[in-house]
Write a structure and sequence with these properties.
The chain has 197 residues and is an alpha+beta fold. The chain contains 4 helices and 4 strands.
Length: 197
């Protein structure tokens, strides 16, 4: 028996007794057996063997491992999405007795969102009038070569900052309303599918 083969069998016997074995090929092509994995990453990966010496996990290169892990993560995400879709479908069908009930409920919710948007827009229009009034006062004072009314510039800055914040809130509410309308349409279509028309 060759010394290398005898050594491999000795290591194999020890690993079988201990409960497991690792096999890998180093950069020079030399085959290694050990009862513990190598400390450094191996280009060709490390195979795991059973107590009987059969391969239980084939060697896997870092690139192959990354590809496998990415595929597993993508599959896990798909499974989670499918589970969420099923949960939503069940909730949709169980929450509404018929399509008309769903439409009526969503119409109420949309009305609340629209009312909030209308209030923001009304407030913005009021601010615009206030700002225009202050700007006219400042302009008139300058035409008369007089000092503008006390605190007018400070008040103007405050109102303009408030109007800018309102514009942000209005844009966000418009997006929310548009998203809600789209979700409502999607849910109505899905409800028809689930109820068979």
């Amino acid at each position: 028996m060759k010394p290398l083969a005898g050594l491999a069998l000795l290591i194999l016997g020890t690993a079988v007794y201990a409960g497991g074995l690792y096999k890998w090929v180093d950069e020079s092509g030399k085959v290694h057996y050990s009862d513990s994995p190598p400390l450094q990453s191996q280009q060709q990966g490390v195979a795991e063997l059973s107590k009987q010496g059969a391969v239980t996990k084939p060697a896997e290169s870092p690139a192959a491992r990354q590809a496998r892990e990415a595929a597993e993560a993508a599959q896990k995400q798909r499974d989670a999405q499918q589970l969420e879709n099923t949960r939503r479908d069940n909730a949709l069908v169980e929450s509404y007795a018929n399509l008309q009930q769903l439409q009526a409920e969503r119409a109420k919710q949309q009305a609340v969102l629209q009312s909030a948007l209308d209030a923001l827009q009304q407030r913005s229009r009021g601010l615009t009038l206030q700002i225009q009034g202050i700007q006219q006062d400042i302009a008139q004072s300058r035409r008369n070569k007089q000092a503008p009314p006390q605190n007018s510039q400070r008040n103007l800055n405050v109102l303009q900052a408030e109007q800018a914040e309102l514009a942000r809130q209005i844009a966000a509410k418009q997006q929310e309303l548009a998203a809600f309308r789209q979700k409502t349409q999607n849910d109505l279509n899905r409800y028809r599918q689930l109820r068979g028309g």
